[in-house]
Amino acid sequence: MQAVVVLDRAAGLAGLHSADRPYPHAAENDVIVRVHAAGFTPGELDWPATWTDRAGRDRTPSIPGHELSGVVTELGFGTTGLSIGQRVFGMADWARDGALAEYVAVEARNLAPLPADVDHVTAAALPIAGLTAWQGLFDHGHLSAGHSVLVHGVTGAVGSVAAQLARQAGAYVIGTGRSSSRRRAAELGVDAFIDLETEKLADAGSVDVVFDVLGGEFLEPSAALVRPGGTLVTIALPTDIRPADGRTVFFVVEPDRVRLADLVQRVRDGRLTPAVGAVRPLSEAAEALQPANRASGKTIVSGGDR
Predict the structure, then answer these.
(1) What is the pLDDT of residues 96-148, one digit of tens each?
(2) Residue 227 carries which DSSP code?
(3) 47 phi and psi angles, rounded to 5 deg
C-alpha cells in the first residue's frame, strides 16, 4: 500500500517521503480501516513512540498521522462493537504505525461511528483537537459556567475547538495569538483577544483556567494569571512552573469513544467546527506537511470518499 514514512528522527519533517509499505495486520481487538482522510501533528516526530514500540524496539520506518476517518474493511479476532463497511473516525495508536497510508490497523476501542452526514475530512480534523480541548478544559481544568479561561493559540487546531467548547459551557473566553488571528478569534466568539506580538499577557487579568499549547516563555506569565484554586493546563511539555495558589496539569490526550460521539454530534448540530486548512491527496502529503507549505488550520491528507 502507499504510505508516508519517516526514516530518521534527526531529519524531522524533511525526512517525510512516500513509500510502499506492507498491508497492516489486524491483531486481537483491532480493525483495519481504509483511510479516507487523516491528520498529522508536527510534534509527533518528537514523541518516543514514533520511533519505538512499547517494548522499546526500533520501528523505523514509521508511518505517522494519528487521527483518521475511514471505513472498516477487516476485523481482528475478538473485535466487537464495529462492523465491516462501517464509517468510523478516531485516533490511531501512538506506538504503532499511523494513518498517513491507504490502510491502518487500529484498536476498535479508539474509534467511534461516523454519521453519514459528516464528511471524512471534517471527521479527521476532530479527534486529537476535540479530545485534547475537552480533556484539558473539563477533565483537568474543571471549567464550568461562570468561570473564565485564557486559551493560547486560540485560532489553532486545538485552541479553536477549546474556545468553542468553553463558550458553550458558559465560560468567559480570552484568546491569544498573533495580530493576524484577531479576526478569526472574533468569529470564534471569544470575549477578549490578546495580541502576543503587541500586547502584554498580564492585560488579560486573572482567570480560573489557562489552557496552554505554547509552553516556553509563556508558561511563567500564564501561571501568574491563574486565580487561587485555579489551574494552568498545558499540553506543551512537563513543567515545574506552578500558579502561586493553584495547580499545573500537563497531560497527553487519551482516546475516548463516548466523547468522540458527543463531539461529532456537536459538529452535526453546527455547534462545533474543526479548523480544517489545506486538503491534499496522499501522494502529495510529504510535501504538503512541510512547514513552508502548511496553511492556516489543520492540513488533512485525503484518500477520497470511496
Answers:
(1) 999 999 999 999 999 999 999 999 999 999 999 999 999 999 999 999 999 99
(2) E
(3) -80, 130
Q: Hunting for cell 479527534 — which residue is that?
A: 127
Distance CA 275, CA 11 (A): 28
pTM of the model: 0.94
Q: Distance between CA atoms of 195 and 5, rounded to whole angstroms?
A: 37
Are the C-beta atoms of 167 and 189 separated by less than 8 Å? yes
CB atoms within 10 A of CB 159: 28
Q: Contact at 8 Å (CB) between 271 and 168?
A: yes
Map out the domains of the chain with their CATH numbers.
Answer: 2-127+255-302 (3.90.180.10), 141-250 (3.40.50.720)
Secondary structure class of 73 (helix, strand, coil): strand
Residue with grid cell 487579568, as numbered in its chain: 205
Separation between Cα atoms, residue 43 and residue 103, nearest integer Å: 22
